[in-house]
Amino acid sequence: MIRQMSCNEVKALHYELLLKDILASAEKLPPFPDVVWKVMSLLRKTAPVQEIEQVIQYDPVITARVLMLSQSAFYGRKTRVSSLREAIFVLGNQKLMQVVLTSCASRFFQSRPSGSDGDERELWYHSVATAVTGETLARQLKHKKVLTIYTACLLHDIGKTVLNQYAKVYLHLRVTNPKLDGKGLISAERKTLGIDHQELGELIARRWQFPKEVVEAIGHHHNPLAVKHDADLAMLAYIADRIVNDMDKDHAETNPLDPEEDQVFAHWKLDGEDVEKLQNKIIDAMEGIQHFLNH
Ligand SMILES: [Fe+2]
Ligand SMILES: [Fe+2]
Which ligand approaches the C-alpha of residue 133 most closely? Predict the structure, then answer.
């Protein structure tokens, strides 16, 4: 005899299938464009500029984005750059890597069907602002791993790009819980979807073969103190994320940032004045790359 399933059993099965589906979607994401690893290896070998140019120009979309970004004050210079070769010269190794990384990452934030479009654009803007903040912060703190911090900050919310595909369930969660942020959002995601955007992001970054410390920072950007060995990257991603969210009026109202009361900010000796100065720098930098972000 076939037993009828209880309401709880149906719910459990629904969540099990939903989680399976979410994990399958993460698996289906295309690989991170390997132009990043190719350029990085050429730069390490101090290869001639022609070789770097050849690798980048193979991908016209990335080439166009590299050219556009190299004309922004934050990455390059404000004057016109007329060729890819000139852009490579103007940028220098570290900025070139940031520009290539950002150009490649934009694909994953701007490829969704309409409906969640506005959300995707907002998430992309937030991700770049967090990367810009992470870099500015890393330089201010004289941290050696500027590029690694930039990378972790840029991709910290990559898990949300997959969760956004479950627009109905995910948006319902966000709309019915507008005050959710940080740890609250993480536990609500786990309850509703069976997985949170940190864990999913960690999974994606590992699949894309990013360095272990980047993977770990993505997986702990809302709870950096849970990282056992060398929590620097996760802490800086957390700080950058909080600073950027604090600039967004809705976020700031629902989850105000108080650096003096925050253990992670205290660890890096960052007070309210430091945060304000950083926010002013970020506003300037973001204005300079607005044009790129809208394409
Ligand atoms: Fe997040
Ligand atoms: Fe974030």
Answer: 2
